[in-house]
Write a structure and sequence with these properties.
about 180 residues, alpha+beta, extended
């Protein structure tokens, strides 16, 4: 008797997905997956962890990025949920209203570094929603969040709750200060 094999239908070249899309889709599906605890009975051998290369590519390629939330590579997604629920106490606030884009980015950078040196873990940056900008496009919001994504001290950020500015402000989780 002949063994039964399943054949996969070959898609036309135009219908095949880009491998980068597969990687992104896989990463989105696996973002909440957590490693299981080791088997207490010792039935499963532990696997030696693999380490990323020392010269890793740009941070945005490895990060969960959206307009509202950001989580740096290697940071647990539960941190963003804690930020949204208000489990971190906001220790400092900076209001950027009335500044130009360049002034706002520079001010946010100084604020982040000063807050981190003071030992703050969570801060709030108020950038506004851009309702009074040209064509109602949020200039400060866009520029500040781009800057936060690239800053090495920023672990995560999300929109502030409505009571603290909503989409016109951002809660930022900072890396702990090395001692």
């Amino acid at each position: 008797m002949k063994p039964v094999t399943k054949r996969r239908a070959r898609l036309p070249v135009a219908d095949r997905l880009d491998p980068a899309d597969d990687v992104d889709a896989f990463a989105r599906e696996m973002r909440d997956v957590v490693r299981l605890d080791p088997d207490p009975r010792g039935r499963v051998r532990s696997v030696v962890p693999t380490h990323p290369p020392r010269h890793s590519p740009q941070r945005t390629e490895h990060a969960e990025v959206s307009d509202h939330d950001f989580v740096a590579h290697g940071v647990d997604r539960s941190e963003i949920r804690k930020l949204k629920r208000g489990e971190y106490i906001v220790r400092a606030r900076r209001d950027l209203h009335g500044m130009t884009g360049a002034e706002a980015v520079a001010s946010a950078g100084r604020f982040i570094e000063n807050s981190r040196h003071r030992g703050h873990r969570c801060v709030c940056i108020i950038h506004g929603r851009g309702l009074h900008s040209k064509d109602n496009q949020p200039i400060l919001k866009t520029r500040v969040r781009e800057y936060l994504r690239s800053h090495r001290s920023v672990l995560a950020y999300t929109d502030a709750p409505v009571s603290d500015g909503g989409p016109g402000a951002v809660y930022v989780l900072l890396r702990k200060q090395a001692q």
